[in-house]
Amino acid sequence: MPKYRQNLPQLAGSTFLSDGGMETTFIFHDGIDLPEFASFVLMATPEGRQRLKDYYVRYLEIARRHNAGFILDTPTWRANADWGAKLGYDAGALRKVNMDAAGLLLELRQEFETDATPCVISGAVGPRGDGYKAGNMNAEEAETYHGAQVESFAETEADMVAAFTLTNYSEAIGIARAAITYAMPCAISFTVETDGKLVTGLSLGDAINRVDDATGGSPAYYMINCAHPSHFAGVLDKGEAWLERVRGIRANASAKSHAELDDSTVLDAGDPADLGRWYKGLTGSFPQMRVLGGCCGTDHRHIAAICEACLPQGHGG
After folding, report:
1. DSSP single-letter state for residue 197
2. What share of residues in the chain are helix, strand, coil (percent, to 5)?
3. What number of other Cβ atoms are within 10 A of residue 222's Cβ?
4. pLDDT digits over 6-55, tens only?
5. Whole-angstrom Cα distance, residue 167 to residue 141?
6. How far is residue 275's CA from residue 285's CA, in Å, rounded to a whole number?
7. Model-level pTM greater than 0.90?
8. Which of 283, 256, 225, 268 is nearest to 73 (CA)?
9. What is the pLDDT of residue 267?
10. Is 54 exposed, middle or buried, given 0-12, 13-18 or 19+ CB atoms closer than 10 A?
11. 192-217 burial string, b = 16+ CB within 10 Å, else e?
């Protein structure tokens, strides 16, 4: 039985960490070729599985040092039908890789979880298209399309699913509805541009409200990812009800725009200490934001700096 599916511990108020930019770490730091920016291909070999384990261990050790919880997100951001087809994975192969990825994280949880560091297994879902461009699926199409991946996680020990780098609220509605169908708690994470809005021009608050209105408020919480805090801090106005739904941040290391990052041939890792200061400011102003991780350009150094800034006493409370 899944350990936390009926009672996600990150909703209780303690700080939970997650990893950083998995794909940028593997490509730019480790020199691994990831076709189509897909980490799930590493599941195909024992060597790849060990690389994935080694990647997560760096973060788990940080969480244990700080007595913080940890969200173990599967390496399956690209493991959906369209991206899978480009990599030679049919529906059956994708189902297997999604389920195997959850199993890999179960092994890590069994090794690293403590009372002070509960480890939540989360099935990572990515957009059908590019995480920097607007998707064009309606909610019904998205529910069917992403439902296959959500269902595969529902058959494992995964505690929840989390959809990252979403740029369109309709796709988010579809994923949330699929999660309802398969009785999986879900988190929805939106990508915003340098103005703090979705690439469609919709405000973050409107996107969250539209998803909640269309799903009866079914997502467990929302997150902001794939943008530097300087891009969205200015749109977080205290007192707005939708902000209480935002419980996590997975920011980019770089303050560059998505267009600039797309054109860059080198990694902009930013300043980990500065990113930690941004997180300290955000969590100080919005204490419900207690799921802290990174996105493009971040690695274990950034997560360690975030801990130093936000958890100076070395505990998750």
Report:
1. B
2. 50, 15, 40
3. 23
4. 999 999 999 999 999 999 999 999 999 999 999 999 999 999 999 999 99
5. 15
6. 16
7. yes
8. 225
9. 79
10. exposed
11. bbbebbbbeebebbebbbbbbebbee
